[in-house]
Amino acid sequence: MSKPNTDGGTVTQSSQPFGLPKWVVAILPILLLGLIVGGFFVFTPLSSLDTGGEPLPDVSITHTTLPNDETVVVHVTNNGPNEVTISQVLVAEAYWNFDVEGAGGDNTLAPRESAQVVIPYHWNPGWDLEVALVLSDGSTVHHTIVAPNQSPGLTTDLLVTMAVIGLFVGVIPVVLGMLWFPFLQSMSDRWLHAILAFSAGILAFLAIDAGFEAFELGAEVPGAFEGTALVVLGIVGALLAVQSVSAWRKGRADAGDERAQSGLWVAYLVALGIGLHNLAEGLAIGSSFALGRVSLGAFLVVGFMIHNVTEGPAVVAPVARGERPRLAHFVGLGVLAGAPVILGGWLGSLAFSPTLGAFFLAIGVGAILQVVWELRGMISRNGRVASALNLVTFLVGLVVMYVTDLFVAL
Q1: CA distances (Å), 316 to each of 32, 66, 185, 371, 384, in order?
Q2: Phi and psi dihedrals of 92, rounded to 5?
């Protein structure tokens, strides 16, 4: 006997397996697995393979901060399975006094524990500085501070500055690009599809660029956090999350909801994908200021301003047909796509974190990939995706973003 299920399938009723309640059968494999794992710990069947050697220590220096010209703060993480003890610190090949903060009051770091090594050392701005941590077993962890400059720290002035920078880098350029909306409305369907393909090219370049950068940052993530796996998780997780929103929208549209059938949904998805990418841009700007690299931050601001203007047409192209959305929607789209730069700047100002940067970049990649698929669906409803014009404009979108990206890299 069967009965309909909520997703259109059927549920087959059967007798209790093994004569046990269903909940017992459901947890039985977990209980058995627990017994097997416990047996490995109790009987140690692999002990004959143990050669007696201790695993090598695995300590990462994630970043450094310079609160003043008399102090160097080294941020470290113990990635290994055993605790490690910091015995000595060398600065410019000379042994130096130090304190370890955040490690339980001593110099020992438990597995996966992070701490700050505070060194009272007078450093010279712009002169590279070599720092090394000597562990109790004699292992040495080296790090070079390139062109050190004082870190301003998290202050109200810095937060306000990051908000203003985020406004000019994220919101204003995207809004300026959205001013092409009346021009998009005047286009024929053929050329509007070409603009959608151009938008897809822009987003595809953002995904490629952010993807490479995410994996590069993932290599700098402390080993305990599995940087590559974290990036993959962020990409796949964001893609599935945005896809679930899209599937929910499609279900509403199939049920007759006119709002769900409009291109406004896709426009918001495009804005969301761009916003997640711009969050990572804010992290880059905020961290450059937090690490005292103000000149680099200024270049990033100018570069991202030019770069982000091209994102505006990508946001409004999906709503160029049908009834014109209310002004509030345009404001919402601009804020969603551009304002995350402000949040990223605040987070980056706390101190640059490869883990956080790689994860946010990965989230942006996953969201953008799903949005590109949505744009493909919009074109295919009453047009041909792989037409010559669409393929050329898609390529033009890639080239335009590459060229504007040079303003960030230079």
Answers
A1: 55, 43, 10, 13, 21
A2: 55, 45
Residue 224, helix vs strand vs coil: helix
Contact 147, 292 (CB under 8 A): no
Buried b (16+ CB within 10 A) or exposed e, 108-143: bbeeebbbebbbebebeeeeebebbbebeeeeebeb
Strand partners, 101: 116
Distances from the Cα of 242 to the Cα of 89, 135, 140, 273, 321, angstroms: 47, 45, 45, 9, 23
3-state secondary structure of 66: strand
SS3 content of the chain, % helix, strand, coil (to 5): 60, 15, 25
Q: How far apart are the first and last CA of the chain?
A: 70
Query: Tens place of pLDDT for every residue, the chain, 410 residues?
Result: 455 555 555 555 555 666 677 877 788 888 888 888 888 777 776 666 655 556 678 888 888 888 888 999 998 988 888 889 999 999 998 999 999 998 777 889 988 888 999 999 999 887 899 999 999 888 899 999 887 877 666 677 778 888 888 888 888 888 888 888 888 888 888 888 888 888 888 888 888 888 888 898 888 777 767 888 989 998 998 888 878 877 887 787 777 776 666 778 888 888 888 888 788 778 777 776 665 555 555 665 676 777 678 788 888 888 887 778 889 999 999 999 889 888 888 887 765 667 777 888 888 888 888 878 878 887 887 778 889 999 999 999 899 888 877 765 55
Rounded to whole angstroms, the Cα distance separating 31 from 173 reads: 57
3-state secondary structure 344-377: HHHHHHHCCCHHHHHHHHHHHHHHHHHHHHHHHH
Backbone Cα Rg of the chain: 27
Cα dihedral across residues 332, 335, 336, 337: positive or negative: positive
